[in-house]
UniProtKB/TrEMBL annotation:
Family annotation (InterPro entries): ASHA1/2-like_C, START-like_dom_sf
Gene3D superfamilies reported in the protein's UniProt record: 3.30.530.20
Domain Activator of Hsp90 ATPase homologue 1/2-like C-terminal as annotated: residue spans: 29-139
Species in which this protein is naturally found: Planotetraspora thailandica
Family of the protein in this entry: Belongs to the AHA1 family.
Pfam families from the UniProt entry: AHSA1 (PF08327)
Name recorded for this polypeptide: Activator of HSP90 ATPase
Family matches, as SUPFAM superfamilies: Bet v1-like
């Protein structure tokens, strides 16, 4: 598997309004029920994404290890999961929806993240700030569904040549989505550069 090519298998869209909406969709060669289980079964989720704790049912609260937490707002197996997606007590509006549908003996996976983003963060990083993270997560899901490989360690992934190529490709793809949504080319270029540097900082030469 060329995991850089896997990044190019996804379709990305941005709605650049008062609330920012990033959408990431792609097809998996797996049945809807299997993809749903991978996304909602705590044991499987920890294998490709992050360990999760909490009351994992409609109306319950969840917490991802070292990441977001929130409330399970909608749960309609095996088609729709919607959760609030919050960092810290003072987080603004942020929700994530996952939609699954059958397509050509596989599954169309669509993730939609809607959030109020501080203007300084948006002007600095654009949609890639969350988009690259979601790309890496879905890459982990791809590896899990196809080979059962363990989740990507984002703390070291950027240290590999393959990891840097994946991050760069993802950041550039989100830049194209940003420009398609009306982002000025100079702001898009700066956002892509900043996002790439954040996820894959240059290493000091020894």
């Amino acid at each position: 598997m060329d995991i850089v090519d896997e990044i190019n298998q996804a379709h990305r869209e941005l709605l650049n309004g008062e609330r920012k909406v990033v959408t990431l969709s792609r097809r998996y060669d797996a049945e809807v029920e299997d993809v749903w289980d991978a996304c909602t079964n705590a044991e499987r989720l920890s294998r490709w994404f992050l360990p999760v704790t909490g009351d994992l049912r409609l109306g319950g609260k969840y917490q991802l290890e070292g990441n977001a937490g929130g409330e399970i707002l909608q749960c309609e197996p095996p088609r729709l999961l919607k959760v609030s997606w919050l960092f810290g007590e003072n987080a603004g509006f942020s929700e994530v929806e996952v939609h699954l549908s059958s397509e050509d003996d596989g599954t169309l996976f669509e993730l939609r993240h809607t959030a109020e983003v501080p203007p300084d963060m948006w002007s600095g990083y654009g949609p890639g700030a969350v988009g690259v993270g979601w790309d890496l997560a879905l890459l982990g899901l791809t590896l899990h569904l196809t080979s059962g490989a363990p989740r990507i360690d984002e703390s070291t992934f950027h240290l590999t040549d393959e990891g840097r190529r994946v991050i760069t490709a993802s950041s550039q793809a989100w830049g194209r989505a940003y420009e398609a949504a009306g982002g000025p080319p100079d702001e898009v270029a700066a956002a892509v550069a900043n996002t790439t540097a954040f996820y894959a900082p240059e290493q000091e030469q020894s």
